[in-house]
Write a structure and sequence with these properties.
This protein is α+β, with helices and mostly antiparallel strands. Among the domains are: 28 residues, no CATH class; 59 residues, no CATH class. Helices cover 16% and strands 28% of the residues. The chain has a four-stranded antiparallel sheet, with no helix packed on it. Strand 4 and strand 5 form a beta hairpin. The radius of gyration is 44 Å and the shape is elongated.
Length: 161
């Protein structure tokens, strides 16, 4: 029975010394040994110091040396708008043709690119560049005044000789 108590005592001392070293208590080094005590461990619920979140910064390169589009590396589209010496993109040109005029004096109709409009009427007229919103301002004997994208144009009937 004495042996059993002795085993319990050794186990208890070992457990206490193990818990003591985990809590930061440094064990006394044996004489003549060079050891460095471990720093105390941080608690498991310790909150780390708040670090600032880095902000991403994206810049559009002005030359090929500064960078490129990672998805389209051979493209120059990012560089196109950055050169002040280059002219701005041209405004699209809409080809409008007055195909014919019809109707009585009080209610004239103009056929523009195959689409018929009355005076004061708006409509989406087909062009080679796609559909364009056109407003017919007035219809005259040989022409029609229309407004496209804020610009007024006078369309004339073609005279065949």
């Amino acid at each position: 029975m004495k042996n059993r108590h002795f085993v319990y005592l050794i186990a208890a001392v070992t457990a206490v010394s193990l818990v003591g070293s985990l809590n930061g208590a440094a064990a006394t080094p044996a004489a003549g040994t060079n050891t460095v005590a471990n720093p105390p461990l941080a608690g498991t619920n310790a909150v780390a110091a708040a670090q600032p979140i880095p902000q991403s910064l994206f810049t559009i390169p002005t030359s090929k040396e500064e960078g490129r589009d990672p998805f389209f590396p051979k493209s120059d589209r990012l560089l196109a708008g950055s050169d002040p010496g280059k002219p701005a993109a041209p405004t699209p040109v809409f080809t409008l043709v007055l195909n014919g005029l019809s109707g009585a004096e009080g209610h004239r109709l103009a056929m523009i690119n195959g689409y018929t409009l009355a005076s004061g009427e708006e409509g989406d007229v087909p062009t080679p560049a796609g559909r364009v919103r056109v407003r017919c301002v007035t219809i005259r004997n040989e022409s029609a005044l229309v407004e496209v994208a804020g610009e007024k144009r006078e369309l004339h009937l073609h005279q065949s000789h």
